[in-house]
Amino acid sequence: MGxxxxxxxxxxxxxxxxLIFLRMTSSPRAYVKGxxxxxxxxxQIRQALINAGYSPQAAERALRSPxxxxxxxxxxxxxxxxxxxxxMSLFQTAHTQLTLSNRLxxxxxxxxxxxxxxxxxxxxxxxxxxxxVLSDKGGRAIESKSESVQFAxxxxxxxxxxxxxxxxxxxxxxxxxxxxxRVSDSKDFTIRQEPQQIALAVQxxxxxxxxxxxxxxxxxxxxxxxxxxCVNTLKSPCCGNRQCESGESPLxxxxxxxxxPHKTYAEIVEDARTLAKNDATGAAGLCSSLLVVPQADLxxxxxxxxxxxxxxCKPIQTIPNRDDCYAAFAQKDPDACNSIYDEYLRVxxxxxxxxxxx
Length: 358
Fold this sequence. Notes:
This protein is about 40% helix and about 25% strand. With about 350 residues, the protein is an alpha+beta fold.
């Protein structure tokens, strides 16, 4: 059969199939659905129905019904999919839970260091603002700090308060507001009264006063000798005790009421590096207040180099950082090479220390 006759033969085949099908069923819609599955176009099916005796309007209605049905199914599927996604999002948000806990790192009358850990039940990134308050036994806020953090699953926030604290009981409380709920945790601690220095009488002599006097060189105490014993009573308020008390202000007592900026970890590392030249132990104490491992590692490495003491490499937790710290002492302290974990770096360090001696 020639190429010019093939379209006509296809239409004739379609028309014959229509007649056979319509004799078996009275549903033109079922016929349209079957022809669409076989790949016939809407125009071919429409013409076949008209040729079989259906009016153009009936043919159009028969064509429209399966297409509308398919569109409805697709739209319904999309609606169900979107609804399911939205419901899952609400479920996940509604069930994201936070827990917050404080751990006191060091406590003294001069400073209080703690770490605040926040845990999330979700792996999604969360933006939070964590507030930490240091207060006295009566609930009066002495110092407060706030940190904005962005994290997934967990984060640890180091906090240091530098207010001078007289003897007493205190509380540090961390709090965060998430999803309309407030999550908090608190820890109590006590600053003890230091033993007073009382002058001893010479054995066998009757004492009518206090040998050596009772001046404790503290401008904020009232010093007296009572029955042969020194009594040093705290004055309140007193400008110079590093407590901004009632009646004091930044204008009347700047040394107690001045705002003390919170130091960044980079500033703490720089302070430790400077202090290490004269007080390596004190500098290492500053490094211990850094709870984030890479920051603490950098701090101890700086102290070791500034003090020329390889022993301060030992607290470094990350092995490559600790090895680099020891390797820096190849010529100054060859024994430090033996503490290097990596075999190749250890051999190189020993070789460099030997070369430096020759």
